[in-house]
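Narrative summary of target 7.
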Amino acid sequence: MSDELIFYTNPMSRGQIARWMLEEVGAPYKTEALQYGPEMKSERFLAVNPMGKVPAIKHRGTVVTEAAAICAYLADAFPEAGLAPPPQERGAYYRWMFFAAGPLEAATINRALKFEVPAERESMIGYGTYEAVMDALEAAVGATEFIAGARFSAADVYIGSHIYWGLEFKSIEKRPAFADYWSRLKNRPARLRAAAIDEALLAAAGNSS
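Modeled conformation, tokenized:
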């Protein structure tokens, strides 16, 4: 079985999260950049992800979709990169990574869409209120240097990306704890490399249109 790692993405997507994680891992990978529309909905790509969306990876015959799952998978597939705590110390690592994939994403998207959960339906929505999510996130990023403790991990790639975009697009409140947390992540060499690669892909797509 081939060890080839294939990365399906679009530079204007959550593929930016997976790209950062791939650069942190440091393993060689092949990029397949897909355009929105027919290319992502083609029979060929639907065989990779039936949702017809990116990011996705294929590694040793295994397909993984969803950015949080890709981060978790890559941390386990390449343990030498040191991007996951030991199994017995993964409580905060899993907790906050999937908090971001669930309550945080749902709350911020609903906020961006100007959808207000009726007070009597807060228990149904899962995350309760936007304010409760922001308070929980603020406490989490302020408790330790990184989200899962004293060491940077794959969970920081995922949560850091959400906070960065949230601050940029104003779907996350500008609280000092969020800005401080992002300041500890934004200049990581792997993140800067990933951003440069995606910027180059965007520029190339613009020049070819």
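The CA atoms of residues 145 and 151 lie 7 Å apart.
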